[in-house]
Structure formats: C-alpha cells, structure tokens
Design brief:
383 residues, alpha/beta, two-stranded antiparallel sheet, 12 helices, 13% strand
Length: 383
C-alpha cells in the first residue's frame, strides 16, 4: 500500500499482454446481491469465448462471518505492499498508483500472483493464520478513474471486476491446495483510499467525503465483498464521511489511519483523538481501527503510553500494516529506490506488537513483499 505521491510517473499503460478474458458479472448473479448466498457467482469469458461456469466451493467467510473470523483467535495476515511491488520489483507502469489496471494485463497479473499473493497466502496457511485481502482498488475512486482516462460509468465495473478477480484467485488457490475455509478463514476485503494524498492532511468536509466516496462504496456493496477497509486516512472528516457512506450502503468497514514518526496523523491530530472522534460521529460503526503505512517503531510508543494509562481507545486498534522502511513519509515520498528494510526485524517487532496489544490483523504496506510477510507469519506463530 502506498500513501504519498511517489515521484515516478508513466505516460501511458503499456500492456504487452492484454487479459484474454475479463469477468463479466451478470445482473442476475448473486454477485450483485449481498442478500443472496455468498461464495457462488457466475462468470463468462469475454467476446469470442463461449463457456461459462458456476463456482460453489466456499472461498471466504462472508459478511456474516467477519466478526467470527476476527474473534477466532487466529492472526489475519494481509497482503504486502502491492503497489510498491508492482512499481519497483515488477517494473509495472503503475499510473497514478492505480493497481487495479494490472488485472487487465494477464502476464503482469499472473506474475503478481506467483511472486506476491500466493507465497503470502501459503505462509499464512502454513502457520495456521487467516488472511484478509485487498482488491487493488485503493485508487479506483472517481478522481483517479477520470484521470486515467476511463469514463465515469466505468467506476462501477472496475470495482466489481476487481472483487471478482480476487475472489477467483482465492478460489483457484483453494482448489490447488485443498485448504478449507474452516482451517483457513479468509476475509474478502477491499482496500479503499483517501481522495487526496495519504501522506498529507486535507481540509475535506464530512459531506464532501461522503459524496465523493459513496459511488465506489456502493459499487463494492453490490458485490460479495465481506469488508471494506479505508486505508491511509489522515483526517477525521474523511474517515467519518467514508464510514457513513459504508453504513448507508450496508457494507461493513474498518478504518486505518496513517501516522508520522511521532505517532500523530499528518496535520498533528493524535491517534486517540482521531479514533474517538470518528467513533463518536458514526456511533462506532467501524468494525475496528488499525494503522498502516508506518513502521512499528513509530506507533509502539503511542500505544504503550495509552495502555499504561488504561485509555479505552487502545482496544479499538486491532492491527498494523507496517512499512518496511523506518523513513519518514517525506523521505519516502522523495525516494526513487525501494527501501526493503530488514524483514526479520520488522517481523519480530510486529509479532511483539500483536502480542502486547492483542492485534488480530498484521501485515505489510510500502516496501514489503512475500519475504516480509512470510517472516511475519512465522514470527507471529513463534510469539
């Protein structure tokens, strides 16, 4: 996951291999109705292809199963820093940091699965954890869809197809490994992003945030998605607007803020004030809070001090997606090379935080890859 505005741009998407098929979800499919049976959807090949099939194997926990998965005692591992992996490792022309475009490039999408997603899923399963996904839609919101040259009406298609693609990947992985939902719970979650820069605060109002984000949230709510997670949020108003939009659409949501090296949000808001104000303004609708795009060393002192004072808000923080690097956001924003940090040390620190603060979601953000996540899975088991 990326938070700032990396100084790397590509003029256009170079697709050396266009996906030979694209998921087209039919209007009568359960994918369009969260009230119908989860884990059963129709798909068909694109133009010129004739087959269609129905998948019935349980793939993810479903919306009704999110609470049980979160309280199961299992650690839920996230994906890694998909955007930084695509950009720096795969050399993929990541326009506007919009990872969803890789889903239409079959060669790049296959490589992402093989080198990032599958090793992470396997590590989580091997160490008796669960998994909480992304759907690569962090930049599939109105401004970025338009900036990338898509018509506005494509926003719904992009988000729905992204969910379908990730679910299809999970189904394929389960089929190959034989790993059941009972032994390996997976929350099918989508990664939402802020309207602006995730490294900087903004003056967006609650109402403007609601109006901006609700089209994407509504599209996701019409799929079989279990949970939306709003990542790299930097101010209370945007978080409140997004949570209210999710509540109106009936979609479970978690909130993940980003903090600076001093443990406060960009702009200076304390983590405690952020969580309490968001919860107060939304009647505590968020399933949980977490933090992302920061190093454990930048978060731990804030949590330790609050726990020592028995501050109740600490109990709402249930996870961390850590950056590989100890660098500040400003330093990362100006980086032209990937800082992978020390995977073993990062894993050890995350495992300690998980135990100390009863986290049930841990994983990687900028700069993390399968090596980091495998080390985190192992460390959390050992700890």
């Amino acid at each position: 996951m990326r938070a700032g505005s990396w100084k790397i741009r590509t003029p256009s998407l170079q697709e050396d291999v266009i996906a030979p098929w694209r998921l087209f979800v039919q209007t009568h499919s359960p994918l369009y109705s969260p009230h119908q049976k989860a884990n059963s959807y129709h798909f068909e090949r694109a133009k010129g292809c004739s087959w269609k099939g129905v998948e019935e194997m349980p793939v993810h926990v479903g919306r009704d199963g999110v609470s049980a998965a979160l309280s199961s005692g299992k650690t839920l591992l996230t994906f890694g820093g998909t955007e930084t992996f695509l950009l720096f490792v795969q050399g993929y022309p990541l326009r506007e940091f919009a990872a969803f475009e890789v889903l239409d490039n079959e060669k790049a999408w296959r490589r992402l699965q093989e080198e990032l997603l599958t090793p992470i899923a396997t590590a989580a399963s091997d160490h008796n954890h669960g998994l909480i996904t992304d759907c690569l839609v962090w930049r599939a919101s109105p401004d970025y869809v338009r900036q990338l040259g898509y018509p506005a009406e494509d926003l719904k298609r992009i988000n729905k197809e992204a969910v379908c693609r990730i679910k299809d990947y999970l189904s394929s992985w389960r089929s190959k490994t034989g790993v059941s939902t009972e032994s390996f719970p997976v929350i099918l979650a989508a990664d939402l992003g802020p309207r602006g820069d995730g490294y900087k605060s903004s003056d967006i109002t609650v109402e403007a945030a609601f109006e901006y984000h609700i089209s994407q949230i509504r599209a996701l709510a019409e799929t079989e998605l279990d949970l939306a997670i709003a990542y790299t949020l930097t101010n209370v108003n945007e978080a409140v607007g997004m949570v209210r939009a999710a509540k109106e659409c009936g979609l479970p949501m978690a909130v993940s803020s980003t903090v600076e090296t001093d443990g406060t949000l960009p702009g200076g808001t304390s983590l405690s004030d952020f969580i309490k104000q968001v919860d107060d303004a939304t009647d505590g609708y968020a399933a949980f809070h977490m933090v992302n795009c920061t190093h454990p060393e930048h978060l731990e002192p804030t949590l330790r001090a609050a726990k020592a004072k028995n501050e109740s808000w600490v109990g709402r923080v249930k996870g961390l997606r850590a950056n590989a690097s100890r660098k500040s956001h400003e330093e990362l924003d100006n980086s032209t090379e990937l800082d992978r940090g020390d995977p073993a040390n990062l894993a050890s620190q995350l495992a300690t935080l998980r135990k100390s603060f009863d986290f049930n979601v841990v994983g990687g953000c900028c700069g993390t890859d399968a090596e980091h996540l495998s080390a985190i899975a192992k460390a959390c088991t050992a700890n």
